[in-house]
Specification:
The complex is a heterodimer.
Chain A (H helix, E strand, L loop, with lengths): L14 E10 L2 E11 L4 E5 L6 H7 L8 E6 L2 E2 L4 H10 E4 L11 H11 L5 H14 L15 H13 L5 E5 L7 H16 L3 E5 L3 H7 L2 E6 L2 E6 L1 H6 L4 H10 L2
Helix pairs in contact in A: 3-4, 3-5, 4-5, 5-6
Chain B lengths: L18 H8 L4 H27 L18 H13 L7 H15 L10 H21 L15 H27 L4 H16 L2 H15 L8 H27 L2 H9 L4 H16 L1 H14 L11 H9 L8 H30 L6
Helix pairs in contact in B: 3-6, 3-13, 4-5, 6-7, 6-9, 6-13, 7-9, 8-9, 9-11, 9-12, 10-11, 12-14, 13-14
Classes of the chains: A alpha/beta, B mainly alpha.
Chain lengths: 254, 365
C-alpha cells in the first residue's frame, strides 16, 4: 500500500467501484455506485426490477460499459483495453438467469471449452477438472448429454460448474433462480451455499431472501440506479434504516 | 397420512388401420378431396404412360449412328456416342484419366470426413482442404511436375460444371461468412464496406457479372495483362454467390440469443473464438437449408457460363445437338442434362437433410 493516491479510508478490496455512472442513451441507469468487496465476501444485491442491480454486476466483467468512474477487479482496471477486459473475465465467473449454456455442445464440452481455449489446459486435464466440478454440483452422470435434455435446475447447476472450471476468484450470479420452476430453486441454492461455505467471493443478484439471510455478509439494496442501503443481513431484515427499503421488504416478505 | 396411488400407463386407443382406412382418410375424406384425387389420377394417366413409352419402351438403346434409331421413342444412342464429350468437353481423350483420378481422389479423400469415429477429424479436414485443391489443379491443369499442360479452354462438359460449382462453393462459403460477420461488426468502416459489397453483388444479375468479367474487364486492364477466362468467371461466381451466402448466414447470426454472446464473452473467449466455437456452429446449423438452397442455385447457375463461351455440360450438349450427323436430338440431350443436374441437386438436398438431423441436439423445445 505504498501508493500515496490511494484513499486510506477503505482497505483495497478484490472489487472496487469508485463513483461509477452509466447511461443508456439519455437514461441514467447507474448513479455514483461505490462498492468495495473483500476477498471471500458474499454480497447480495436486491431491489425492484430496473433498479440497476444486474447492470452493476454486469459492469464488473464489462458485459456493460460504464461511462464514468473507476472499476478495479483483482487489481486490474476495466478500460477499453481488450487485453485487460479478457484478463478480468478469466478471473470472474458468471451465472445467468437463463443459464446460457451452449446448446450445440455436451455438458462436458460446455465445461471444457473455456479452460481449453482460454487457459490452454490440455484436454484430458480440462475434462478431469470438469468432472470434478460436475460431481460437486452433483450431476456427473449428465456429462455426455446436451443441455436441451436437462431440466432447468440441472442446466443452472451445469452453468455453475462451467463457470467454476475457469477457477475464478469471483463469481457473479445474475438472478440465478428467477427462471426456474419452484421445485428446482432449492437444488441451485444449495449448490450456491456450498460454494459460499468454501470461501468463494460471490456477488448475487437475487430475490431469495432466505439465501441472503443464511449466506450473505452484506446486503445491498438498490433503487433507481443508486445504492440506497447497505447492511449486514440481520440488521437489513430486522431493522432497515431507509423508508424505501422497509417498503420493499414489506412487499416481498409476506 | 394418505399415499396417493398413481394410475398405470395405458396404451392409446386403437385407430382404424389398413389400406382401406388409409385411403379413406387421406384420399377420399370428402367430396372435394375425392374429386381432387380423381383429377390427379387422370393427369398422371395422361402424362406417365406416354413418357415411359418414349423414354424406355420405345427407345433405342444400342447402335453407333443416327441410322440405328428407328423406333418412335428416344434415341439414347446419341447420349452414348457423345458421352465422353458431355463428361470431359474437349479435354484430350488420352488425358481423361486425370479428370477421373481427380474425382476419385475427392471421393476417397473426403470419405474419412463422413466417418463419425474418425480421430483428429478437424485436423484432417483442414489438411484435405489445403492439399486437395493443389492436387486437383496439378492433375487437371498440369504444366508442371511431369504432367502436360491442358489449358482451361479445353476443359468442358460435366468436368467444367463441377469445377465451377466446387470452386464457387468452396470460395463463396468462407467469404460469405466473413461478410456476414463484417455486416454485424461494431466497427462502422468494416460494416459499411460489407454492406456496400453485399448490396452491389446482390443488385446485379449473374449474367451481367459473367459478361463484364469476360468482355469488359480486359478493356480496363493494361495492355498485355490478361488472365484466364475461366479464372475470371470463377471470381465472378464466388463474389456473386458470397453476397447471397452472407445474407443467409446473417439470418442465422441474428437468431442466436444475446445470452450466448454474453456467456461466451464472460468466459473470456475473444471475438474470433466466440464466433468460431460458440456462435457460428449454432448459426450455420440453423441456416443449413438456406445455404444448401444457395448452393443448389449456384450449381444450376453454372450453366450461365454459356454466355462467355465456356463449354459446361449444358453448352456441350447444345453444341452436340447442332452436329449435322445427329440433328433432331435436342430433346434427348436436354432430358439427359436435366437428369444429371437433378441427380446432383437432389443429392445436395438429401445431404442437407441428413446433416440437419445429425446435428440436432434436441434444444428446440
Amino acid at each position: 500500500m505504498s501508493d500515496v493516491n490511494m484513499q486510506p479510508t477503505q482497505p483495497e478490496g478484490i472489487i472496487q467501484m469508485d463513483g461509477v455512472h452509466k447511461w443508456y442513451g439519455q437514461f441514467h441507469v447507474l448513479k455514483d455506485i461505490n462498492m468495495n468487496v473483500q476477498q471471500g465476501e458474499r454480497i447480495v444485491l436486491c431491489g425492484p426490477s430496473g433498479s440497476g442491480k444486474s447492470t452493476t454486476i454486469r459492469c464488473l466483467n464489462r458485459l456493460e460499459e460504464h461511462q464514468q468512474g473507476r472499476i478495479l477487479v483483482d487489481g486490474t482496471e476495466l478500460t477499453h483495453d481488450l487485453k485487460q477486459i479478457e484478463a478480468v473475465r478469466r478471473e470472474v465467473g458468471m451465472v445467468f438467469q437463463h443459464f446460457n449454456l451452449f446448446p450445440h455442445l455436451t455438458v462436458l464440452q460446455n465445461c471444457t471449452l473455456s479452460p481449453m481455449w482460454v487457459r490452454k489446459t490440455p484436454r484430458r486435464e480440462a475434462e478431469e477438472m470438469a468432472m470434478h466440478y460436475l460431481e460437486r454440483v452433483r450431476i456427473p452422470e449428465q456429462a455426455h448429454k446436451f443441455p436441451g435434455q436437462l431440466s432447468g435446475g440441472q442446466q443452472q447447476r451445469v452453468a455453475i460448474a462451467r463457470a467454476l472450471c475457469m477457477q475464478p476468484k469471483i463469481m457473479l450470479f445474475d438472478e440465478p433462480t428467477s427462471a426456474l420452476d419452484p421445485e428446482m430453486v432449492k437444488e441451485v441454492l444449495d449448490t450456491m451455499i456450498g460454494l459460499a461455505e468454501d470461501g468463494m467471493t460471490m456477488l448475487c443478484v437475487t430475490h431469495e431472501m432466505g439465501f441472503a439471510r443464511t449466506v450473505a455478509n452484506r446486503v445491498i439494496f438498490m433503487d433507481r440506479g443508486e445504492i440506497v442501503e447497505e447492511a449486514e443481513p440481520n440488521k437489513f431484515f430486522s431493522n432497515p434504516e431507509n423508508e424505501r427499503t422497509q417498503l420493499f421488504l414489506s412487499q416481498i416478505l409476506h | 397420512m394418505q399415499t396417493h396411488t398413481f394410475k398405470p400407463d395405458m396404451p392409446p386407443p386403437k385407430q382404424a388401420i389398413g389400406v382401406l382406412a388409409w385411403l379413406r382418410e387421406n384420399l377420399f375424406s370428402g367430396l372435394f378431396n375425392s374429386l381432387l384425387t380423381l383429377f390427379a389420377l387422370y393427369l398422371l394417366w395422361l402424362i406417365v404412360p406416354p413418357l415411359i413409352n418414349w423414354a424406355i419402351i420405345n427407345a433405342d438403346w444400342v447402335g453407333t449412328t443416327r441410322a440405328d434409331c428407328t423406333s418412335e421413342g428416344a434415341c439414347w444412342v446419341f447420349i452414348q456416342q457423345r458421352f465422353g464429350q458431355f463428361m470431359y468437353g474437349f479435354y484430350p481423350s488420352e488425358l481423361r484419366w486425370r479428370v477421373d483420378l481427380t474425382v476419385i481422389l475427392a471421393i476417397v479423400g473426403a470419405a474419412p470426413l463422413f466417418i463419425d469415429a474418425m480421430p483428429r477429424k478437424a485436423r484432417y479436414g483442414i489438411a484435405f482442404l489445403v492439399v486437395y485443391p493443389l492436387l486437383a489443379y496439378w492433375l487437371l491443369h498440369g504444366g508442371f511436375l511431369g504432367l502436360d499442360l491442358v489449358p482451361t479452354s479445353q476443359w468442358g462438359g460435366l468436368t467444367l460444371t463441377l469445377v465451377i460449382a466446387a470452386v464457387g462453393i468452396a470460395g463463396a462459403l468462407p467469404l460469405g461468412i466473413m461478410l456476414a460477420l463484417g455486416r454485424r461488426s461494431d466497427m462502422p468502416a468494416i460494416r459499411v464496406i460489407c454492406v456496400t459489397f453485399i448490396e452491389f453483388w446482390r443488385g446485379v444479375p449473374l449474367i451481367t457479372v459473367l459478361f463484364m468479367s469476360s468482355v469488359m474487364l480486359p478493356l480496363f486492364l493494361p495492355e498485355g495483362m490478361n488472365f484466364d477466362k475461366l479464372v475470371r468467371a470463377l471470381i465472378g461466381v464466388i463474389l456473386f454467390q458470397s453476397a447471397y451466402v452472407a445474407e443467409v448466414v446473417r439470418g442465422g447470426l441474428q437468431a442466436i440469443p444475446k445470452g450466448q454472446y454474453e456467456a461466451a464473452a464472460a468466459m473470456g473467449l475473444g471475438y474470433w473464438r466466440m464466433m468460431g466455437l460458440v456462435i457460428l456452429p449454432q448459426a450455420l446449423k440453423m441456416v443449413i437449408p438456406g445455404i444448401v438452397n444457395t448452393f443448389i442455385a449456384l450449381f444450376k447457375d453454372t450453366s450461365l457460363v454459356i454466355i462467355i463461351g465456356l463449354f459446361d455440360l449444358l453448352n456441350s450438349i447444345k453444341q452436340a445437338t447442332t452436329d449435322p450427323a445427329w440433328l433432331g436430338m435436342a430433346t434427348e440431350g436436354y432430358v439427359f442434362a436435366a437428369l444429371v443436374f437433378w441427380i446432383f441437386c437432389f443429392g445436395m438436398s438429401r445431404y442437407s437433410m441428413h446433416l440437419e438431423r445429425k446435428l440436432d441436439t434436441g434444444h428446440k423445445r
